[in-house]
Amino acid sequence: MDSISELELFQAIVDSGGISHAAVALHSSPAAVSRRLRQLETRLGVCLANRSTRRFHLTDEGKLLYERAAAILESVRDVESEVSSRGTVARGLLRVGAPSDLGRRQLSTLLAQFARLHPGLEITLFLSDAGIENMLDGCDVALRFGLPRDEGMVARKVATSDMLLVAAPSYLTQRGSPATPEELRAHNCLRLFRRHRVPGPWRFLQQGGFVDVSVSGTLGSADGAMLREWALAGEGISCEAEWDVCEDLAAGRLVRLLPSYPMPRIDLYVVFAPGNPVPPRIRLLVDFLIHEFGGLTHA
């Protein structure tokens, strides 16, 4: 019997409270466990425990071995986990959350590509614009705009985008174009809801500081893709990330409004739980997404 197996056996006996309980935990018999313990004592030349059918007490030598064994076995597990975490293959189940439009337009293709690279992986994609939280939404990895509420999570920035006000030519023909942020109050503004919270004002950089403008409108949704569809249909003015509407702007389906009044940029983060180490399926996906989203930044 090797030394690590001996230490694991002794730790199991002590943690279980005796030979009989350890035998159950180890799927063995009391006689076999007792025999292995006697072999360990014989090799060490000391008595490790005073035992009877009802009592099991460690000797001073047994206490010393148990304390040192616990530390050694923990170090062994740490080393094994660290080495395993450096593997280049992702396996198992992986639940990924992301904003709706980003998920449909960019992330879905990237996840399919990542799954082809790792055939042993099963990925589920959850889409929501309510502000995904890993624990609350049951996600291993979440792509989200802005930092998570849970400060215990690890957040790595993957991209940055300007926020733009856009509307369809048909809407502007009917309602006209606002010349200043304040004129938005007279327009039908499409608003994004997050977890049933009332949408806040739209913020603009004006004369060296930020100005908040409270807007209103007849349509709102927790799905950002729906706001874009309404904007394309001429229903109102929408506040969009540049990467979501750059193709529509280039094709003339949407028109940018108030370019002289920039809005705060948004950061896209990939968020996951800390680990020692982080499981390969999460670490590899995070590294993959950071690399692939590197070209998505719009400034």
Describe the protein.
With 299 residues, this protein is of the alpha/beta class. The protein has ten helices and 14 strands. Strand 3, helix 5 (100-117) and strand 4 (121-127) form a beta-alpha-beta unit. The longest helix has 26 residues, at 60-85. Residues 1-59 form the HTH lysR-type domain. Keywords: DNA-binding, Transcription, Transcription regulation. Belongs to the LysR transcriptional regulatory family.
Main-sheet strand order equals 4-3-5-14-6
Could you give the order of the helices and strands? HHHEEHEHEHEEEHEEEEHEHEEH
Mean pLDDT over the residues: 86
Estimated radius of gyration: 30 Å
- Helical content stands at 40-55%
Compact description:
This protein has 299 residues and is of the alpha/beta class. It has helices at residues 3-16, 19-25, 30-44, 60-85, 100-117, 134-137, 169-175, 224-232, 242-251, 280-292; strands at 49-51, 56-58, 92-98, 121-127, 141-145, 154-161, 163-167, 189-192, 202-206, 209-213, 220-221, 237-241, 255-257, 266-272. Strands 4-3-5-14-6 form a five-stranded mixed sheet, with helices on one face.
